Amino acid sequence: ALFVMSGQSLISKEFDELLARSSKWRAAYGRSGNERVDLPNADQAFSSQDAKTRVNEAVIDWLQRLHQFE
User: Fold this and answer.
1) Under 8 Å CB-to-CB from 45, ≥6 apart: which residues?
2) In the chain, how long is the greatest CA-to-CA distance?
3) CA–CA separation, 16 vs 37, rounded Å?
4) Beta bridge partners of 6
5) CA pair distance 46, 43, nearest whole angstrom
6) pTM
7) How far apart are the C-alpha atoms of 55 and 59, rounded to whole Å?
8) Looking at CB atoms within 10 Å, which of 24, 38, 54, 58 has the fewest?
9) Helix and strand totals (H; E) in the chain
10) In whole angstroms, what is the distance from residue 38 CA to residue 63 CA?
11) Residues 25-34 pLDDT 10s
12) Contact 6, 44 (CB under 8 A)
């Protein structure tokens, strides 16, 4: 799974809080193949052009890495 986290999003902060308090979520999150991309200046909708570009690049890179293992 690819986790794209917005630094300006309450949901991203709540997800980090969930990871901090739940060992089951940390175990699932820590599984091989999971990756995280943090965009500290992005809003929840990734509405700036920079955020959109960075999300697109992260998804493409992640998909290419997944494809290498097939």
Assistant:
1) none
2) 36
3) 13
4) 39
5) 5
6) 0.84
7) 6
8) 24
9) 3, 2
10) 17
11) 999 999 988 9
12) yes
Separation of alpha carbons 24 and 1, rounded Å: 16
Could you give the dihedral angle defined by the CA atoms of residues 17, 33, 27 and 9, in that order, rounded to the nearest 10 degrees?
10
Contacts of 44 (CB under 8 A, 6+ apart): 6, 8, 9, 10, 11, 12
- The letter for the amino acid at 58 is A
1, 33 in Cβ contact below 8 A? yes
Taking alpha carbons only, the member of 11, 8, 14, 16 closest to residue 46 is 8
Cα torsion at 41, 1, 25, 15 (round to 10°)? 20
**Burial (CB count <10 Å: 0-12, 13-18, 19+), residue 45:** exposed
Rounded distance between C-alpha atoms, residue 65 and residue 70, angstroms: 9
